């Protein structure tokens, strides 16, 4: 189990490192025939908080046997619907293994880093929101510095950093799935399409 590892998204080895760590984490779940759920948390209404939905968009083509994606730019998983989405996943999938992805704030030297931990994700911490924890494995990208006025910090985050993190995380996950499951895609309906009924209202 990976307690906590940190990689620099600008490093040449970052995608490879993410692939190796994620592969090691999900290999037992694959052996137990668990469905792999990639849950991308965030909203497209804030640059800094759009990391999750962008990753979800980049991974839409990855859906295949036992791999499902929840959360993208069209149908984001955010503070207002994450409880419903968590219930939907638990009711739709049998004993799923959930990889939860979200943006985070941190120290200046950590901006641009990818953090992987073998524990649930606690979304909304940066904004002091009490939201349900989700996932078996959490992947967060540090998009900006923490401190005061976190909402404004997220709103004024550089899109370049978010896109670089999203590209690195999505590529690492893509190669981890190929390594552990293979390239065969499923022809069945993406269960993540059920999110069409859970839309943002504000």
What does this protein structure show overall?
32% of the residues lie in helices and 18% in strands. The chain is α/β, with parallel strands linked by helices and 202 residues long. It has one domain (5-180): Rossmann fold. Strands 1-5-6-4-2-3 form a six-stranded mixed beta sheet. Helix 1 crosses helix 5 and helix 2 (51-58) packs across helix 5 (159-180). The N and C termini lie far apart (39 Å).
Count of the domains: 1
Structural class: alpha/beta
State the shape. Answer: globular
Name of the CATH first level = Alpha Beta
Radius of gyration: 16 Å
Strand content: 15-25%
Number of strands: 6
Q: SSE order in H/E notation?
A: EHEHEHEEEHH
Main beta-sheet annotation: 6 strands, mixed
Strand order of the largest sheet: 1-5-6-4-2-3
- The tally of helices reads 5
Mean pLDDT: 86
> Which bin fits the share of residues in helices?
25-40%
Distance between the termini: 39 Å
Task: Throw out a few tags for this protein.
single chain; 202 residues; alpha/beta; six-stranded mixed sheet; 5 helices; 18% strand
